[in-house]
Design brief:
alpha/beta; Rossmann fold; 8-stranded mixed beta sheet; two-stranded antiparallel ribbon; 36% helix; 24% strand; disordered N terminus
C-alpha cells in the first residue's frame, strides 16, 4: 500500500510539473498573458507572437528548437472566441485587400513593447528576439522597424507590413545594423500573398537590418524545412559564440 502511495505521489507530481510549465501567467504593466519555458542558463530571450484567431499555445511546440533560450509565448489582447485571440481586428474582403484596425494594432504594439521591457528586465539575458507567424510576424516587423532599440533579432513567418506607410526611421539608421532577421514565406500563400511578404522583407533589408530571406513551396503555414532553416539561422547568429 505504501509503495502504491509513493507511486501515486510521483505520478501526480509529474502531472503537476508538466501543467505548471504551461501555466498562464499575467504581466500587469502591459496587461498581457503568457506562458513560458525557462532555460536553466539562458543566453537569450525569445518572445513568440501568435497569429490572428490563434493563442499562446500555437507556437509553444517549437520551444525546444531554441536551446539556451527562455521562450515566452504571449496571448493577444483581443478575444474573438474561446481560445481565439488577436492583436487587431480584420475586416475580410473578397479581393484580399482586408481592412486592418490600425488603432488596435498600435495599441497592441505599445503593449508588446511594455511586455518586452519587463521580460528583458526579469530575465536579464544577452539578446532579445521577437518572432511570430502571420499577424504575429506583422507585429514583429512593426516593432523592429519602429523601435529597433527594443530587440536584437526578429523571426517573421508569412507576414507583411502593418501598413503601406510602415518604414524604418531614417534618422536612426545605425540602430538597425545590429539587428538580425529571418524572413520566411510560402510562395503559394493565398492568405498573405508572397508579393506582400517580399515587400515586407525588402523594407526590413532597406532599413539596414541583417536579413536572411527564404521562400518555400507551401501555403499559409510553416514547413519542416522552414523550421530547420530557422534553427540553423538562430544557432549561427545567437548561439555561435557560446
Amino acid at each position: 500500500m505504501k509503495l502504491k502511495s509513493i507511486a501515486l505521489f510521483i505520478f501526480i507530481s509529474f502531472i503537476w510539473l508538466n501543467c505548471s510549465a504551461n501555466q498562464l501567467l499575467h504581466e500587469p504593466k502591459s496587461n498581457l498573458s503568457y506562458i513560458v519555458k525557462e532555460a536553466s542558463s539562458p543566453s537569450n530571450l525569445l518572445i513568440l507572437i501568435h497569429g490572428y484567431g490563434s493563442n499562446e499555445t500555437d507556437l509553444f511546440s517549437f520551444v525546444n528548437r531554441f536551446p539556451q533560450t527562455t521562450v515566452i509565448c504571449v496571448r493577444g489582447p483581443i478575444t474573438r472566441s474561446a481560445n481565439s485571440y488577436a492583436w487587431y481586428d480584420i475586416a475580410f474582403k473578397p479581393d484580399g485587400n482586408h481592412g486592418r484596425n490600425l488603432n488596435q494594432a498600435l495599441q497592441s504594439e505599445t503593449m508588446l513593447l511594455q511586455f518586452i521591457e519587463v521580460m528583458k528586465e526579469k530575465y536579464n539575458t544577452e539578446k532579445t528576439i521577437v518572432g511570430g507567424f502571420s499577424q504575429g510576424a506583422i507585429m514583429s516587423a512593426q516593432i523592429a522597424l519602429s523601435h529597433p532599440k527594443a530587440i536584437d533579432g526578429i523571426i517573421c513567418l508569412s507576414g507583411m507590413l502593418l501598413s503601406e506607410n510602415t518604414k524604418a526611421n531614417e534618422s536612426g539608421a545605425e540602430q538597425y545594423k545590429s539587428i538580425k532577421a529571418f524572413y520566411g514565406h510560402g510562395i503559394l500563400d493565398q492568405v498573405l500573398t508572397i508579393d506582400r511578404g517580399r515587400r515586407c522583407s525588402a523594407t526590413i533589408r532597406k532599413s539596414g537590418i541583417q536579413l536572411t530571406h527564404k521562400e518555400y513551396p507551401i501555403k499559409h503555414q510553416i514547413s519542416g524545412q522552414e523550421l530547420k532553416d530557422i534553427e540553423l539561422w538562430y544557432k549561427t547568429n545567437f548561439l555561435a559564440a557560446h
